[in-house]
Fold each of these.
Amino acid sequence: MDQDFMKTKSVLPLVLTMSYPMAISMAVNALYNIVDSFFVSQISDKAMTALSLLFPVQNFAHSVAVGFAIGINAVVAFYMGQGSSGEAEKAATNGIILSALHGIILSACCIVIMPWFMDKFTADQDIVNYGTNYTDILFLFAAMDCMAIAMEKIFQAAGRMKTTMLSLAAGCIINIILDPLLIFGIGPFPELGIRGAAVATGIGQTMPLVIYAVLYKTKPIPVRFRKKYIRPELHMMRRLYSIGNAGTLNLALPSVQVSILNAILSSYSAGYVFILGVYYKLQTFLYLSVNGVVQGIRPLVGYNYGAGENERVRKIVRISIILAAIIMTAGTVVCQLIPDTLMGIFTQDGAVIQSGSSALRIISGGFIISSIPVILSGALEGLGKGTESLVISLIRYILLILPAAFGLSCIMGAVGVWHAFWITELAAAAVSCFIYRRAVRNKAQREYTHTDNKMI
């Protein structure tokens, strides 16, 4: 398949073509998360609270997989833009092997630490049991999930966005179908409760890997896996990890944020922890859609950067910010108009619905402006500037919001935590513009150097 379309097609149609399949697939993925939470909430509020508490660990494991895969995506796309097919295949082969290893390590570590982690946030043994029963099964699928995500990014680097859309959608649909069957024991299926939700999620995560393997054989992509590259090479590992580690930290920071915010909110009421968990389920629908745009432009930025098309890179970034803002505007309108309906999906408690509705209205005030730091962070990853991207994420998830949440909660109570969200997004937008402009001005046009074996 000719990859020149990435640097010859008009920018707006190109961004739309690359982004809409991922935006759709991310939206479907968010929908299955919401559906998954809906069915778990039917078990009990404690089961839903358990999912809220274990979210940071689950998100961290996912972040390791996606973050490293972002490194694979950026390196493969860059080498393809340069026309260095051998190096691109080396990056892909090294990347898939290392991803499988990451999954095995994550599976063992997460299962071991989960009881300890849950005990740190709740004394309710029922909640602890719900959480460990879920994760003991879910993390058994970690290796398959890591490999599926790596394959996703390799296919994306080759421009096969529709393929990844259909593969992700298939996994999500299977999960949605299996959730009620395995949780409640419908028909011939056993009643597994929260364990059933874990099994359904694990199968849904594995299905894309099966699809990618079949398509790799039947509809080959320009990047091939080679036996001669199975043994990871040090210089390639450095390149993959230099971007991948920053990508992992970018994605893992929300886990730290949620854990600390849970600690602040739990001092007021477990109901606020529940509300925060529901908010993250709902906002996932929006931010995963915007992330679809980020995933669409990341290989475009890397490919055009490798091909020396710097003006196209700038156009791609500008158009992507506009597209993201449109998505976030829709989310803002919904959260302002029907927050009670959204909260009512997860609970029938009137007091929680009222408090949650107020929280959604306040937090959504920062949705539109957040388009700027989200897109600029993703564009920097495509340019191989993982450190600068990480700085933006640190500002959004740690350095600004956590002190603001603590300080405002001391003044306003739990409501202060909700105000910290929009205040942080406003400040992060300004800072991210400065960081991006400085990074691009300083050396965005440099190529990979072979003397120090890293992207600069």
Amino acid sequence: MKKIFLLAATVMMAVSVYAQEERAGDDVVDTRKNVVSLGVTAGGNFSMMSKYDPIDLGSRTGIGFQGGIAINAHFGQRQGADAGTGPCGVQVEVLYGQHNIKTDLNENIKLGYLEVPVLFKYYFTQEFNVELGPTFAFLMSKKPDVLEAPSTKISIGELKGGDIRGTIGVSYHSKKGFFASARYNLGLGELAGNFPCKVSYASLSVGYLFDIFKF
């Protein structure tokens, strides 16, 4: 049965590919112009927190890291170029991001998020593009539960489970699959009702994508 299913899947794939091709004389012209790629990405982030009004936490930018997988859909074809070289695309990533925020108190703030950027890309050249879209963030870890200030204690144990960030950036995608991105991510939600601060960050990342199919 496994062999039969494998043979059927192979035939269906072959028919699908053939249906997307046109024969011109002895040559085969591939009419598929869009490319979907899959890969990995990793980099660093520089996180900052908005001011906490009741007291001065002395919060400063801290350095963290991020990494995960990326899937890219590049639409269209420039004249004389390969498929997947048009002006528009979409990139979705699933990342784990560790954000560190320095303070003058007993401990620095460390937040771990599962982050899902959904970015619309405009390629102003075949390789350079600007990207814009939301990043959905889901809180995975936090430390500490309590910040000890000279005259009070601030409980941050009940942080909200998620946030939406506005993301804008520039990116370079080479023909061989390497890419590099620089982004700014603006935090739109407060961390908690009793801790009305927002976390934003700049990030630098690199990665590699390989084509998985055309359509």
Amino acid sequence: MAKTIMVQGTCSNAGKSVIAAALCRIFRQDGYRPAPFKAQNMALNSYVTADGLEMGRAQAMQAEAAGIPPDVRMNPILLKPASDTGSQVIVNGKVSGTRTAREYWAEKQSLRPVVRAAFDSLSAEYDVIVIEGAGSPAEINLKRNDFVNMGLAKMVNAPVLLVGDIDRGGVFASLYGTAALLEPDERAHIKGLIINKFRGDLEILRPGLTMLEELTGSPVLGVVPYAPLDLDDEDSLSERLDARSANGLLDIVVVRLPHLSNFTDFSAWGRIPGVSLRYAARPEQLAHADFVILPGTKATLSDLKWLRESGMEAKILQLHASWTPIAGICGGYQMLGQRLCDPEGQEGGGELRGLGLLPVETTFRAEKRTVQVRGEILIQSGFFAALAGIKTEGYEIHMGETVRAEGAEPFQMLSHGAETSADGCVKGHVFGTYQHGLFDSAAFLERLAGLLAARCGTKLEVPVMEAAQYREAQYDRLAELVRGALDIERIYRILEGDA
């Protein structure tokens, strides 16, 4: 069985996912075979595995850092919020249904064997399991049925590294308070503290570290400096969603829908010098966009109503009339159509008029399509015609079936094994597609950026790096940063049970 080490945090977005990814890469570099694990994840940013199963994006990222294919056993339970009180529950990569928080809480214990089986299966195949907690272990109202934080640490006898985010302030109180709220048997699992996202002079911080060790009885294993690494984020707390101003030659604007999902679809735009990637939640923030993207969403009908009521729809239609290029991905593609129907009540039932920019209609069905795909752009006319013939890779993850009107032009031809089908639609300077990961295809992104730049009377010279190559470089940078900041020798002793 594998050795284990667990990364917990004092709060969401403390840096658990990134520290866990760093440990996965470090262990791999040092000759081990590590694998990540998170029992339960709540996020709208998900990933589809090669066998068509859905898991949290953070564990897919950590698997890449470990040098292994993402595997749904690494995240056996995924909760995708569909409203303020309910979530779609995905167990072992497949939809189990939609539950309110109360309903899920009532049946949560029945999922404990699912978590244990997934963990044991991974543990039999790898040398080290790097476990990530969720939220905070000090959420005392949730501890009774916990199998994500200290409940899991006790279940698999994992030592815990507790991470605090100094960038948001109050890190000493949060680390000490978290430890103080734990039961003695839980506190015994904490083998070290990590302070994350530090900016400043470490010598000024050092007296506080000594006091923290005295108060908690746990050693501080290091202080990780803040660094602008570009790694896939897990949830809506991502800093990249806060970008509001355009400071590049090309202004790419993603509509920040209330139930925005898979926002990492667009991260590649931010890697091109001269390009600004930002997210807009108000009509005035769209004013000077050079390219508008409607992203995926977990609640298409609800977010379409929001577009209408917020004035965003009117602004998008105004931009369309002025020939601003527009794209829709997944739920955004559905919104760009003529009509959206929900006869089975998958999103509450009813029917809504779409934005009317593409000649397609969508009907929501209970079956969810989750599959990795390869594509080839088919566009023969309009603004995007120069993209024809470019190869793409990505995945589909949706519950809607979209039909093009007779004679409407598809966006691309997709293949999944022997299965092929036309995907999406294009009309003039608007396209829509169900394919996530489209912009990670370097040839596609480079050609599209060139088209948009030419329309704006400018030129972008820098070629785009392939996404996989770029991510590998980021994981190595992360590992170097964390090696230099933490007491890795002591972490190895913790792993071996000697500390």
